[in-house]
Amino acid sequence: MLLYLTLSLDRLMTNNSSLKPEQAKKLLKKHTDHKFVMKTKNSFSSKKLLKLSHAAGEYPYDEKMELIEYETEKHLLQTELLKVQSWVKETGQRIVCLFEGRDAAGKGGAIKRFMEHLNPRTAHVVALEKPNEREKGQWYFQRYISQLPTRGEMVFFDRSWYNRAGVERVMKFCTVDEYQEFIRQVFPFEQMLVNSGIILFKFWFSVTRQEQLRRFHSRKNDPLKHWKLSQVDVDSLDRWDDYTQARKDMFFHTHNPVTPWTVIRSDDKKRARINCMRYFLNNLDYPNKNKGIIKEHDLNIVGSVNKIYPHTTLKATGNDG
Prior knowledge:
Layout: H1 2-13, H2 21-31, H3 34-37, H4 46-55, H5 67-91, E1 94-101, H6 107-115, E2 123-126, H7 133-136, H8 142-145, E3 153-158, H9 167-170, H10 176-195, E4 199-206, H11 209-221, H12 231-236, H13 240-254, E5 261-265, H14 269-282, H15 291-294, E6 302-304, H16 305-308
Helix pairs in contact: 2-4, 5-14, 6-14
């Protein structure tokens, strides 16, 4: 069946022919069946899947960012990140970036590119394991508070306190009362952070269901990526709609003018990383900023919750990530 789908796609894409949305959605339908995809030995290439997602109206581009363009842009943006780090250190700024999203949405890869040339003494990545017995008895935010930056530091959270609004809620690792208490406390908690002078970014990496499955498939079949596919990831495959609803509820309760969410479309990881960096740099007022290097972020890739997810309170449907 997979061979048939691949051949069908190849025939449709040859001679500059274009897929109609209904054709693309039909081809994607099988690829969003995780029981089928995870059992096959082969999977659609990321390039072919991106073409399908574009034809189906689920991603704005049908081609990936070229590697040479990506590497050139990344290098230039990383020189600007070093200027930011110098400014942070010299002026005693404190920056916190939260990287959230579904499993395999590209959060960790984006953080690696932010950190690639930064001095790790004053720029830290926080990726906490599940709480131990002592931490389970603490106030929920307590173990995250201990990871916050002091003067002159930047901290990048690879998942954050929003675990409670996503994984913990969907997988029932917390009670309903614990979730509701988190929703009541998270805005005043973040408001205190901002009022104390911390510069807070909240990034949500949005991936389509078919691309998430392709990445899970890659992790399953690549011995160097096995560690990335946890049992929680596998268990989440049956809960796409539950995670969608959890995300919508999270945005409804926690997206606000003081601590807004910024959504990054991440089916093309390279575009996501470059435009996340651009957004970050454009929203900081540091000296010697080279706007010719930074440029404006791509509005098709980076946007507000209301732009990317205009129906955040509706019941979950479709493949929105």
